[in-house]
Amino acid sequence: MTPACLLIFSSLLTRTLCVIAPQVKDFKPGDNKIITGPFWHEVFTESYEYPEEDISTTTSEPLPFFTDDASTNNVTAQLGSRVHLHCRVHDLGEKTISWVRRKGEELHLLSVGRHTYSADSRYSLAFEHPNDWRLLIQYVSERDEGYYECQISTHPPLVRRVHLSVVVPKVEIIDERGQPLQDKFYKEGSIIELRCIVSEVPQPAKQVNWKHGGRLLNYDTKRGGVSVKTEATSNGAFSRLYIANANRNDSGNYTCSLADVTASAVAVHVLRGENPLAMQRGNSSGVHPSMVLILSLIS
């Protein structure tokens, strides 16, 4: 195309654009809807002002977490006592706490929220403000020993495992040498002295009771001359029973017990003079009967 033809074409195109532009809807001179540039790139575009998007920044709910330290993961309880298994949770929100008992691969539901679902009435949920979802077990037995899990209903669940150990206290009536005693012989008019040692007690020793048959001797005022002295030891208690001026009515079975948990018994024989046959019956000390009689008479 010659320069003259190019000039004529450019002039015609410019006039065409000037005629078309005012026909564009809402067109105004100087409107930015026309993007200026080389004539072969002239285009009509609509410019829109978009409203600012309402971008709401949602803060995710914080995950709950356990606040108990590792020292509470292992709990020791005495047979027959009551124990709390602790589960302190921070930022629980709308989540739910459950307690389950684990036996191997089996899980047994005990509680959900504040509701108990165990058929065993010894189990209950004892919530303590502000955030301790405690599991209460009353009258602990040996079969309660094992693992318990506190679970938070997240996905997947958060789990805290607690192991419960059950200690069975040991109660023995012993002789002067500390050996277990099954029979004890006394001369009429002497002082009966029985010794009882309680061990394997992780908690402070409970009441040590002495009984003659079914009669409680700790607070006996009818018989008179009865005294019970009990001292706490590092892992239990040491108790002594004294009965002054023994008579035939004081013969029988004597029991030393730690509350209603466990007990030990001894057969006491109050003799009027020598009675070798009675001495031989039930003697388990390994000492010749005549020697036991001599020792009891001079004690």
Automatic annotation (TrEMBL):
<dbReference type="InterPro" id="IPR037448">
    <property type="entry name" value="Zig-8"/>
</dbReference>
<feature type="signal peptide">
    <location>
        <begin position="1"/>
        <end position="18"/>
    </location>
</feature>
<feature type="domain" description="Ig-like">
    <location>
        <begin position="64"/>
        <end position="165"/>
    </location>
</feature>
<dbReference type="GO" id="GO:0050808">
    <property type="term" value="P:synapse organization"/>
</dbReference>
<dbReference type="Pfam" id="PF13927">
    <property type="entry name" value="Ig_3"/>
</dbReference>
<dbReference type="GO" id="GO:0032589">
    <property type="term" value="C:neuron projection membrane"/>
</dbReference>
<dbReference type="Pfam" id="PF07686">
    <property type="entry name" value="V-set"/>
</dbReference>
<dbReference type="InterPro" id="IPR003598">
    <property type="entry name" value="Ig_sub2"/>
</dbReference>
<dbReference type="InterPro" id="IPR013106">
    <property type="entry name" value="Ig_V-set"/>
</dbReference>
<dbReference type="InterPro" id="IPR007110">
    <property type="entry name" value="Ig-like_dom"/>
</dbReference>
<dbReference type="InterPro" id="IPR003599">
    <property type="entry name" value="Ig_sub"/>
</dbReference>
<feature type="domain" description="Ig-like">
    <location>
        <begin position="169"/>
        <end position="267"/>
    </location>
</feature>
<keyword id="KW-0732">Signal</keyword>
<dbReference type="InterPro" id="IPR013783">
    <property type="entry name" value="Ig-like_fold"/>
</dbReference>
<protein>
    <recommendedName>
        <fullName>Ig-like domain-containing protein</fullName>
    </recommendedName>
</protein>
<dbReference type="InterPro" id="IPR036179">
    <property type="entry name" value="Ig-like_dom_sf"/>
</dbReference>
